[in-house]
């Protein structure tokens, strides 16, 4: 019987930047980048991710996050 919630294999802390996360976050797939988790074929699992801005857009209903986003880091 499958668990009610799939296993979390890549957790993130939304208060931390990608480079500060416990596990290294990948921005692409490449053979020279080692995996951070293993799963079985057919296994259901969860992966948490930061948004494309690296967490620069906050959940605060302010458009200032978008206006002032740094697209160069």
From TrEMBL:
Organism: Nymphaea colorata
A Pfam entry, by short name: FmdA_AmdA
Gene3D superfamilies: Acetamidase/Formamidase-like domains
PANTHER family for the chain: FORMAMIDASE C869.04-RELATED
SUPFAM superfamilies associated with the record: Acetamidase/Formamidase-like
Region (Disordered): 1-32
Identification of the protein by name: Formamidase
GO molecular function: hydrolase activity, acting on carbon-nitrogen (but not peptide) bonds, in linear amides
Coiled-coil segments: none
């Amino acid at each position: 019987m499958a668990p009610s919630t799939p296993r979390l294999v890549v957790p993130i802390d939304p208060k931390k930047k990608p480079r500060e996360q416990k596990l290294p976050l990948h921005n692409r797939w490449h053979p020279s980048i080692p995996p951070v988790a293993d799963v079985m074929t057919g296994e259901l699992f969860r992966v948490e991710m930061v948004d494309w801005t690296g967490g620069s857009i906050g959940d605060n209903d302010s458009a200032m996050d978008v206006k002032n986003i740094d697209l160069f880091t």
